[in-house]
Amino acid sequence: MVADLLQRYPQAFETLKRYFGYDSFRAGQEELIGAVLDGRDAFGVMPTGAGKSICYQVPALMLPGITLVVSPLVSLMADQVFALKAAGARPAYLNSTLTQGQQNTVLKRASEGWYQIMYVAPERLSNPQFLTFAQAAAAPGGIGIPLVAVDEAHCISQWGQDFRPSYLEIARFVDSLPKRPVLAAYTATATERVRADIVGMLGLRAPELQVTGFDRPNLYYDVRELGEKAKRAWIASYVREHAHESGIIYCATRRGVDELACDLQLQLMPEGVRVGRYHGSHSASERRENQEGFIQDSIPVMVATNAFGMGIDKPNVRYVIHMNVPESIEAYYQEAGRAGRDGDPASCILLWNGNDFRLRRFLIDQGDVSEESLSLEQRERARQNRYRLLGQMEGYCQTTGCLREYILRYFGDRGALGAASELRENGCGNCSNCRTEFETEDVTEAAIAIVRFVAPRSRRFGKTVIAEALHGANNEKLRKFRLVEAPGYGSLADMKLGRIKDVIDQLAGRGYLEVSQGQYPVIGLGERSREVLGEGAAYGVEDVPLPDFTFTIKRPASKRMKERSRKVADLLRDEESVQAAGRANGALGVAAAASETVPERPHLGDDAELFERLRVLRRDLALERGVPPYIVCSDKTLRGICRLRPSSREELLDVPGIGEAKLQEYGEALLGAVAAFEAEAVADETRRTTK
Ligand code: ADP
Ligand code: ZN
């Protein structure tokens, strides 16, 4: 099936190489493109950064007529059109940022068949002028609409976070055309329910479905429990150490953004590090200025609410720090996933403490204004759902297992689960838990004592009361509830109170106990409690022979290994290990297919120095043309040049990300820079040896 595309549509590979400079497709791309070229509907579920755009851009550049791309994000449209133009294609977008005059021009040129691909917002599909154009284009003898691609397709589902009623227009629009185009949908949303919704509401016909791994091997996950002050101090020192890299720091509230940004500005501005901030109540001009500075690499770090980043396609974000806990793993993965879209190593760091969860629970209990129209029962269901999602987030913060495994298991697609079981055995080696040495401690006896103590009073007391009773505390609450007389009282007197609570958490995490939802959670028996209590548990009998049960927990034995700093030289070195990891993960390695490797040859001078030189050149080239640096080329391309040291146009084409248009536009400048650098290196070398 995979080699198939090459045989059936060799032009797809030529298109990929010519416009995008890549040699091979990533997991899922081939199948989705093959289906579209065959005239079949397609549905791609791929995590952010996996390369969804290529899936419709390549067919759009191959098929006669104009491909329509429905996208909710206006700023992303301009970006994509920018990038496609730079690659030598003929793209356009049609949205409300254009004046009426500009819109007329775009539609006129479109009906003359000038564009290969056009991005539109969903609202456009009910605009009469646009409908007239589309009807004519799809009619016999018209220019043809071979494909309608729906980006961010989860916006069609009311169950998703970003429901856009105008997405409901898409099916009607497609059906109204004289000739039905191929319909293709793409999303990064994982839940089954939303996926089913997308297929149904769009009216996809027997689509080719590709769900690619959610693993992002280039992302390093890190979770740290820190008090409020410690969080700030940690962030300041991290940003200082990574001042030459792009990063985003997310805070839960607008106030949090302003406070942290102010704090960092005071500390870092004197050192020449600019700190941006972004949230909904800043003025439009301040937001624009900050966003542009970030994209242009003049503001390295941005403190923001999660509103920042939605429409931003910046590929070289090297770290995303969460100052607070997001409401769900899904939200976390989406925000953290804005790091490392270029496939290079990047870090996702979550800072948390108990306050974060208290705040979240408070917010859940408050309810959401958007729910005012719902019935009480519906609202209660929504609340329970939010608690469930938050509970899973709590598990992520507390697990001592591999963080990557935890996330993949959460998303639960089959490909990822295979990888997850393997990760459970061996760990991923690229998350803070896998890099921390834990020692195991056998706490079987304590575990049994706890579960036995909970059994007769399931769901009546919170964690603290239970831990205090077992520890043998003597306070008013315990006396009032007569727990001081209960069997088991004081049986864990030798264990520290905090340790008992840890064991309770871990018992809950593994299903032996259950923690209720609500602001004052209570502890009950979990679905696996019988494994501890034996069959008698069902009848409330405590004194039954225990089955074979052991319970161990882990705790950090050594300090965390020093984190890898991600300086360019390291990146150049790391690249190979990331690629090796990608290969080991097989098809899941979205970031690094084996073919993205750059062949290396001996070269002169230091790669990191050359990289800096090229970065400056890139910035100048970008400024001359008024585009962001990453439109000129990615960091990966620059590093490819450092390693390959091309000396001819043909060799330059072997560097990932260099296609014909880029070769044309920048080839001379890049080759010139390499040649000049090597000549200087030779001169230096000669001077040194003749001295
Ligand atoms: P998504 O829309 O899924 O978030 P993008 O389409 O923006 O992801 O792609 C992410 C990055 O991966 C881009 O820089 C893109 O050029 C790159 N990419 C996509 N497909 C390939 C490929 N086959 N080989 C190499 N790089 C690719
Ligand atoms: Zn791990």
Structural domain tally:
4
Quaternary status: single chain
State the CATH superfamily name of the largest domain: P-loop containing nucleotide triphosphate hydrolases
Instruction: Please state the second-level CATH architecture of the largest domain.
Output: 3-Layer(aba) Sandwich
Main sheet attributes: strand count, strand direction, barrel closure: 7 strands, parallel
The dominant shape is globular
Nearest-angstrom radius of gyration? 28 Å
Q: Give the end-to-end Cα distance, rounded to a whole number of Å.
A: 62 Å
What is the spatial order of strands in the main beta sheet?
A: 3-4-2-5-6-1-7
Ligands? adenosine-5'-diphosphate, zinc ion
Q: Counting H and I runs of at least 4 residues, what is the number of helices?
A: 28
CATH class of the largest domain: Alpha Beta
The proportion of residues in beta strands is 5-15%
Let me know the number of strands.
17
Low-confidence stretches: 559-566, 582-598
- CATH fold name of the largest domain, please? Rossmann fold
Name the helicity range. 40-55%
Architecture overview:
The protein has 691 residues and is an alpha/beta fold. The protein is 47% helix and 11% strand. The chain is built from 28 helices and 17 strands. The strands form 4 sheets. The protein has a 7-stranded parallel sheet with strand order 3-4-2-5-6-1-7, with helices on both faces. Strands 8-13-12-9-11-10 form a 6-stranded parallel sheet, with helices on both faces. The protein has a two-stranded antiparallel ribbon with strand order 14-17. Strand 3 (91-94), helix 6 (100-111) and strand 4 form a beta-alpha-beta unit. Helix 24 (607-625) crosses helix 28 (660-690). The chain is globular, with a radius of gyration of 28 Å. The model is unreliable at 559-566 and 582-598 (pLDDT under 50). Bound molecules: adenosine-5'-diphosphate (ADP) and zinc ion. Adenosine-5'-diphosphate (ADP) is lined by residues 22, 25-26, 29, 46, 48-54, 315, 341-342, 596.
